[in-house]
Amino acid sequence: MSPAELAGDARILWRLVRGQSRRGDHAARLQDFYAPQAARYDAFRERLLHGRAELVERLGIGAGMRVVELGCGTGSSLDRIGPRAQACAGIQLVDLCPALLAVAQRRAARHANVEVIEADAARWRPALAVDRVLLSYALTMIPDWEAVIANAVGMLKPGGRLGVVDFHLPAAGGALSGGFWRRWFAHDGVHLSAAHLPALRKHLPDAWTAERHAPLPWLPGLRAPYYLFVGCRPGAAPGV
Q1: Which pTM does this prediction carry?
Q2: What is the dihedral of CA 231, 122, 83, 110, to 10 degrees?
Q3: What is the rounded CA–CA span in Å between residue 31 and residue 20?
Q4: Which of 61-65, 82-86, 205-209, 235-239 shows the lowest mean pLDDT across its residues?
Q5: Longest dimension (CA), the chain
């Protein structure tokens, strides 16, 4: 890692240590927290946010599909979708943080069929129903996460799929472990919950899920819990 990259990681770690501001509304807190991290955001998060490539593969994004990512951040999912993005009917990337959306906009400039939208993931709706909705480490950062799930399911076509990957509190972890992770992540505006997976399964019972642990950058020995979920809206053959 070069000195410039080390310095970039150090700035991000300092922001994580300081934590997210409690002042302003949700959008203002996101902007204040992520603006200083935006340039190095993707490289650092690649070692922190596990399961994103697998989620994209399990969603089965294909030609002619309409795709929405809620809480898209820098739009790095476009890189994981790869050449298939060009064959989609349209991809809409939605987030509230202008600093991260500026990076997403630069990515989207390479794709005529990609639209970047500054909006609230709990309330924004596309004009047409979509085939795939993606939420990558976004639910834990959105206060009204239940509304986001309902909104995501509501914009799906019958047979469409919702894919989610995020940190969580595993049921088998126990109160001590759960309390540690809840406090650790809440400092930076990430609010873990044991209720996310049950809520997703309630909305979309025809689903594949996995619960895992992954290492954290610069913190040897610590492995954070996360899950993957791919659910199918009724109207197509079961199984994802």
Answers
A1: 0.77
A2: 180
A3: 10
A4: 235-239
A5: 53
- 110-143, pLDDT tens digit by residue? 999 999 999 999 999 999 999 999 999 999 989 8
At residue 112, φ and ψ (nearest 5 deg) are -70, -20
Instruction: State how far the Cα of 164 lies from the Cα of 139, in Å rounded to an integer.
Output: 8
The residue behind tokens 């994209």 is 56
CB 34 within 8 A of CB 97: yes
> How many whole angstroms separate alpha carbon 12 and alpha carbon 38?
9
Res. 238 pLDDT band, cuts 50 70 90: very low
* CATH architecture of the domain with residue range 49-232: 3-Layer(aba) Sandwich (3.40)
Name the token pair of 86.
């060009």
Tokens 């650790």 sit on residue? 184
